[in-house]
Amino acid sequence: MKRYIFILFFFATLFPFAAHAGSELPYIAPSVPTSPQAAAFKMYGDVAVNPAMGVPDISIPLFNIEHHGYQLPLSLKYNPTPFHPGYNYDVFGHGWALSVSSCISRSIECMPDETTGFKLDTDQFGKSYRNFTEATMNRLNLKYDLFTATLPDGSSFDFVIRIKYDGKLEYVVSGGRDVKITHVADASKIYSFKVVDEQGIEYSFDGADTTFAGPGCTITPYGTAYVSWQLTSIRLPHSAELITFAYGKSISSNYGRQQVEPAVRFHHIYEVNGDPDRFDVTFQTYTQQHAYQMKLLTSIAYGSTTINIDYQDGSDSEHYNYAKAINIRDNGTLIRKINLEQHQGILHYHGSGNLPFSTLDKITLLGSNGITSETYQCGYTSSSASFGGTDHWGNLNYRSDIHNVGCLNLFVGFDVSRAASSTYVVDVPKDGDDLSPLDKVRISNSYANTRTPSSAEAHCVLNKLTYPTGGYTEFHFENHEFFTFTDYDGDYIHNKKRRIKTQATGFRIYEIVNYTAEGVRSDSKHYCYGQTDYDANGGIGGRYFHTGAGEPTLDPTIQTYMTYQSSEPIPMSVLNMVLGLDPSGQYRSFNYNPFMSYDPSAGLIAAKWEWECTFSAFNFQRLLNGRPAVVYPEVTVYYLKDGATTYTPENCNGKTVYQYDIYEAMQYDTAFFEKPQYFNNVLSYVGEKYRYNLLKEQTDYMSDGQEYKLKRRETLIWHPSGASVEGWEYSNRYGTLSFVPQTATLGDFYTFTYQLLGHSLLYQRDITIYDESETGITETEQYNYLSGNRMLKKKHVAGKLQQETNWEYPKLSQTGTTTDIIRKMVEKHIIAPVLTKKQSNSDGYEREFGEFPTQSGDTLILPARLYQKCYATNRFHSEILAYSPNGNPREVISRDNLHTVYLWGYGDRYPIAEIKNATLAQVEAAVSSIFGMTSSALAQNSLPDAAKLKALRKHTSLSKAQVTVFTHLPLIGVSSVTDPTGKTLYYEYDELGRLKRNYYYENNIMQESEKRVLQEYDYHYRNQ
């Protein structure tokens, strides 16, 4: 029997980290991100795992939760996460999270939506601006909070709650999901959520994580408003038994000082009747503080099974804690113990002191005897971390001076040397690319780029995983890379073709190497990003050297660091001034300073004008808004031969090229689909999260030793669709406050923006298989969908052959009559089960559902009859006459009218008998006679009597029946099977639940001399 470690080569997003500037900066609505724990859970949703982002999802399987047909794998999942200021989630080790961790999280964009009844305060726009102070403006709700639901099955979706025009609540959901969401709230907080998915499975979430004020965070904007709600129960549509999740511990993560960022403000004002040349440069330092109180998962319970998580600190509430063991029990008996050995590293950065962080070193799966074990060991690039500041994206780096805004140059319409009160703004000599006559300055006194992100080695990233067999995998990570408009000297590059390559925060995989237990290299994969130099440069350059760069979701430039406002008219646009463009916005020479070369008496300019602009990393991070730093349009995976280091066909067995749809066509160029754009004078973007990670082509090549040969190509066409969610950004259209007229209203200070919540559905798939001569044969499939991503129709074309398949699902009829059972299915939101599948050759099937009563008085909606379709005729296939209270079939009639009855036991979890050629009534008579109870009562027995089960075959009411009897070891496997002849096969397991042997006794004489072993398994792990 083999044990597997699953390494899925997918990719993950960065955690959200929204910005919140102080009052001295231009007004920005306060924003509170979700908690670090919820952010860690969000990493493992389906949007976060795709090759377009360069980060593998590494999973270690621990256990499989199985509850009446519902499967929930329990595993530890790793994501290489850079350190950021403040608390870094490390309950299961830095970068690790438990797969079943599920929550609804949100970022509070302005005010918590529940405080305004889930409506925006646009009704205030008609009021006089003079009636509002900055404090009252900060309490306006002008953006909807964005909620993210991460379900335990790994799927995720975003949603917004808002009031429609008719006054009713509306949930706008992304991902094409047709889920039913409800919540309980008052004007102070949202207490809970319920989500019912398309299968009718109900997930309940209760309030968990909140912000709070503590030693590391002196302010909390919204008191105890929840930023996440943790999963508390799962209710299956066919069972009254819940899977419950308990959170008996909490941590208040008040460690350390939060992110500190400088900001520099340039200001210029002109008045004819006053001082005509007033300007100033001011410098401020701001601190962003967010601390959280987070509930920790302590147990999962279902049926007679409990999974308990033990923590290092046993108290209910601590400032810091981490998991040390997971215990799995059934009916109180220990089945498995999982020890999590973690060591404590030290994280230090400017102003923080020494902060602890936990690193997961070893995962030991112990059997019930506490001796037999499987062990996984983890190695990391380092065991402690020390940093100086933060990079552009807000993660920690080696920046030694936190007072430098960044190595970014701009042009200013006055002599900064006469105005700057700080040594952190310096004049910069011009070069031949500078066409503007204005003053050129840098908002840093260092020529080095102090915002360069730190390497994977500095952030304690996983680099080795050793398996129980002694074999191991080495992971090699590197920083993301992208093409930027900022050159090495801090100048803005005006020609897109001259962009340079630079590093970004976060890490991408570039090599995965597997070794045997003896240390012999067995295979390796190398990941190369971007096109080859040959393809990128029009046939010039190496065919096996790649650009290595992707596209930034937001390029850190002087423009994306800036907010500005200006009066109208003004001698020159502030944006054109800063970028070194001429007054008309063109990159060309001009020989005068518009701010100093004008004659107000000639009527060319207003008698008074004013502008100001502010530069800060917080502005950049606000606009980034938690998005990944880089996405890749193309990724190539090379499968290297042993010892090979280059990517030529001689050194590789083959390669796979992935291409992603990340661009949208513009008039003269292409751009990333979430490109920054101005709404009035506010730089923002239209969010289209559902367009990430869309694979448009995958091409597989095999190497013949001399060249790469085409073997398979898959081309995908997607149809995206989004619903608009409106919002409003602060934007003073009058410029600075001194230009605001007395008649101004509040609405004059806001600009309409919007985001799109939607989904991308696969419309067409073309698969071409190539022969030795690279001649291909293509098959095409086209798809149509209903809501909830349910497939309605598939058309398959292969040469001259065509086949169409159609599906039908439960729905309310718009014209005719809806049957009672379908109406009840829709009411319970059981809309995903297929009712009918039809193919163009008339094959297919049809299912009828029915209501089945339980002893508790409830009814279950489950399949009742199955018909096989053949040439447009329904042919009866099978019928289920009765179910147990947990949806297990009890009596089935086959196509040949044979009745089969199933008896269940161990709390209605496992089948204990299959009785063919007997009705349920006949079996009930036998069970009553032998066990003295009904079959329903027998199902609740935690340990059925095997001898009595075997006696069923001799009962007179079952004289013509064939009885097969089963016994089980709960959570492990079947322990014996007795066939209708009375012969019993036994299955023996070790303490880890691995099958050791199966055997029988000759003539059922249970003596060692009569034992006949059929198969036997030995497990040899290294050092065992």
Automatic annotation (TrEMBL):
Instruction: Could you list this entry's UniProt keywords, alphabetically sorted.
Output: Signal
> Which residues are the signal sequence here?
1-21
Say which domain of life the source belongs to.
Bacteria
Entry protein name: RHS repeat protein
